Amino acid sequence: MNLPFFIARRYFFTRKKRGFIGWLSILSIIGVGVGTMALVVVLSVFNGMEELNRTLFRSVEADLTITPRQGKRFEAPPTLLTALGRTPGADLVTPVIQDNALARYNGAQTVVTVKGVANNYLQRSQLDSALVDGRFRLQTNGINYAIVAEGIRNDLSIVTQDILTPLELLYPQNQSGSRTLNLLNENAFSTQALTVSGVFFVDAQQYGDFVIAPLPVVRELVGYGPNELTSIELQLKPGTDLVAAKAAVQTLAGDQLLVRDRDDLNVDLYRAINIEKLTVGLTLSFIILIASVNIFFSLSMLVIEKKNDIRTLLALGATPGLIRRVFLTEGAIISLSGAVTGLVLGVGLCWMQERYGLVGVGTTSSIIDAYPVRVDTTDLWITALIVLGITALTSWFPAQRAAKIRQTTN
């Protein structure tokens, strides 16, 4: 048996008197355990929020989106759309024209983001789970329909059952030779009227003002040419390698166009989540460091209490290195007990939150009832390494003091 581990285990488990040092060791275990548990839970909540956002974006964004590197519009000839449709793994290619416009309904008005899409947009079935009212229709029997976000319906008091009141979209016309736009003159705007067929709700701030309309209607509204688009959305077949498909599409699109996946489109959001995750992780690590100070005091007092034992071991031929390892092992037992307890409790709490939704969001407008969590194995390893590193640091100084007792007794 390893002698330092044997002695350290005896010190930890077989103390005849549970005095102050013993209770301080228990307090150290509790402190490390609670800090570890909190770190696991908080990191898992951030993982859950990131996964939730990916799920939300998956319901409105395509697998790949092609946009111009400069400006907001580009020429997309039919040959390009055909070639994109033949890309390995490609399922649906949807031309898109997107811009801001003024929406007016029954006397109320607001600024919206209008997204003109081809008819195959509805074949993607992405918004099916987000439909809260009406139906998904774009063009039927010569009638043009619009699908609006929940925020637009609330701002304009839209009633989907009212088929007689149109949703008017207004966009400023290009006026050659004029540097100013007369906002009071309605002739300065091109106008399109649509019937609202459905309402969708996505709990993402950037999609609360969307109006989805037929591509020809929006093309005429904003005055784009026959082949001009603001983006092309490419939906991939299930199981397609996203990285390989993205590289193939980028090669086909050329240097003037940029191909991005969903993570690329929302890189700022994910960066913010990761920064918050890092900040909170560092804060909780500092709290674990404070809790580990109890290990320092516990081992320091244990060194004082066990001076006679140390002298006996030195007289029997023990080296200072062995004495040091005894107290480092003692600190490791305390830290491992707290870390394992915290990891188990943290994973258990995350499992209960995921299964039973113990902590609710607290708002009725959210699409989820409880905070999402996702336990990442990498986070567990990082948490364990942080805890062990901090506790090893706080255990080193008392162990080093114990190793120097021979010098003070000579």
Automatic annotation (TrEMBL):
Residues 284-405 form the ABC3 transporter permease C-terminal domain. The chain crosses the membrane at residues 20-46, 280-304, 325-349, 380-399. It comes from the Bacteria. It is found in: Cell membrane. Pfam families: FtsX, MacB_PCD. Keywords: Cell membrane, Membrane, Transmembrane, Transmembrane helix. Its main location: membrane. GO terms for biological process: lipoprotein localization to outer membrane. One of its GO terms (cellular component) is plasma membrane protein complex. It is a multi-pass membrane protein. The keyword Oxidoreductase does not apply. The keyword Iron does not apply. Residues 25-251 form the MacB-like periplasmic core domain. InterPro entries: ABC3_permease_C (IPR003838), Lipoprotein-release_system (IPR051447), MacB_PCD (IPR025857). Belongs to the ABC-4 integral membrane protein family. LolC/E subfamily. This is FtsX-like permease family protein. It comes from Rudanella paleaurantiibacter.
